[in-house]
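Annex B. Sample input.
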Amino acid sequence: MGSAMPPRSLMLLAVSLGAGGLAALVYFHDSDLVLLREHLNHPFALGVLACLLMALAAVGLRWMWLRVVIVVLAGLGASAALFGGWVALTFASTEEVGSVDGPAPYRIRLQQSLAGLGPDMVMWLSVRRDGGLLSKEWDLGCFNDDVPDDAFDSVKWTGPSSVEIRVADGRTFPVALDPATGRPQTTAALNC
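Annex B, continued. Sample output.
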């Protein structure tokens, strides 16, 4: 008597579980590596892929009722992942608005996004250490302009491993970077 699933279905099942695991990993764990952060940080797309592969794996099952149940569940999962991805793109997407070069190999990236449904904008700052495929990036600060005095104004390098962030009312937030790695030792945030 043969196995319940043909080898093709077993392979698709394994790949589906791998894609689902990768989706969960990138959703719950933020990586410092730029390669992973920018190119593999698509948990909803990976979730849809996992559901589609699971549905394809179910096609090879002998039992029709199990095939139908798995395909329906995979369709519901893919629909939920597509909806979640749409919501994330609509309300959490950021756009790059500039950068500030620092001492080599560092630079600060400035990104902006809407704060929820309102007209408020959030400025996200991160520091990047360029190193080819091993480039790393860390969060530096977050500033929401719902209170006009708390809006981001500027950022400047004050030394080889220190940064100063200024908000609209003139307050400053000094941030020291670890001299060995470049990782910020603290971060600054207002209303985020």
